[in-house]
Structure formats: structure tokens, C-alpha cells
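Hi everyone, sorry if this is the wrong subforum. Our group has a chain we'd like a structural model of before ordering constructs, and none of us has done structure prediction before. Sequence below.
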Amino acid sequence: MKMYIKSVMVEDQAKAHAFYTDILGFRTKDDIPMGEHRWLTLVSPEDVDGVELALEPNGYPAASAMQAALMEDGIPWTSFGVENVQSEFERLEKLGVSFTQTPMESGGVKYATFNDTCGNLIQIVELGD
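Answer:
Right subforum, don't worry. Here is the predicted structure as C-alpha cells:
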């Protein structure tokens, strides 16, 4: 068994798609119309055959409530691995990304947290050697 898809609930799929591709650098894998929404998945350009990121509409009451609660409590929805947190922080900050947690280190792990503009906090993580 292996991971296939990781999901992120988003308020607006088009806005999320622009942020995750234009700012974060992910690539579109699938973009299939499904009624008022889309089956919209992205992949890392570093691993195009790896785990996909689905941009899921948060139209379900439980999904939007959970998303709002995590945001209010300052809890990231998910984490993405990066090679260098400080460099990625600086790159994203120059692109206008708003960070709620600047780079820190704890237990040999470096991390920072940003607002994805779509209702989520996302953490970037650099694992120690």
C-alpha cells in the first residue's frame, strides 16, 4: 500500500489552483469538470509520478467547519517537505505569501507556516540529516 492522494479543502478551486501552481510551483495533473466543481489534482515538479494533491471544494458543512476550526486554532492542514526552509520562506515571502510562523527549529526539524489564501495554514518542513 502506498499514498496516492493528499487532499486540501479550499474555498475556491480556481483561486487555489492559481496559488498552488503560480506561487508554490506545483503542476496540474488532472483538471476534470465535475458539475459545478472539478477533479483538480497537482503534483510536485520534482516527483510528477508521486503523491497527488487534490484541491477539494469545502462545500460540505463538516469540511468547512473543520477548516475554519483549524485556521482559528492556528493548526496547519498539512505539511510539505522542502530542502531548505529558510530559502523557501524567503522565496515565498518575496512572492507575497503571508507567514503565520517564521522559520523555527524544534527537535532537529525546521519549519514555517503560511496562509494559502484559500482557508488553510500550510507548514513547510525541513527534516534534519
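For your construct planning: The longest strand covers residues 27-34. The beta strands are 5-10, 27-34, 37-43, 52-57, 78-81, 99-106, 109-115, 121-126.
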